[in-house]
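Lecture notes, unit on protein representations.

Consider one protein chain, 160 amino acids long.
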Amino acid sequence: MGHDMTTETRARDTISRYIQAIHDQDLDTMSSLQHPDFIEDWPQSRERIRGRANFRHIIENYPGGLGGADSDVTMDRVIGGDDHWMVAPTFAMVRVSGTDDIHTAIIKLRYAGGEEWFMVALIELKDGLIHRATSFFAPTYEGPEWRREWVERIPDGAGG
């Protein structure tokens, strides 16, 4: 299967618009970018969200909200190349890489209380829409003192 840059660009654009719609709580756009058979798995909590409506209800009922377009979070840079970094205001940054209809997104989330977490989403597109996602969530933390002499400190906001 050849490399179709137009398909990859469209896929990355769809993922970027989808993340932005979730941030903005633009639920109509979010739902329109989900395939009719949308499924998202959260393995850490052993939950499967089946269908656009169920995902939408989770966003609508998220305790404290997700921030929305007025949230006070700094924007990050956009870089081209094989990996594509996109701006998402609720998230410190998003990195999307992949080919064809299979992509990986690394997202740095900032919750209402100021906590920072990383989210890694394995995203499959079908018919140009978000069909399946498997998302993993992990809080940021300081590495232990005992291994400092053998590691380099990654700058804040670096995701991979």
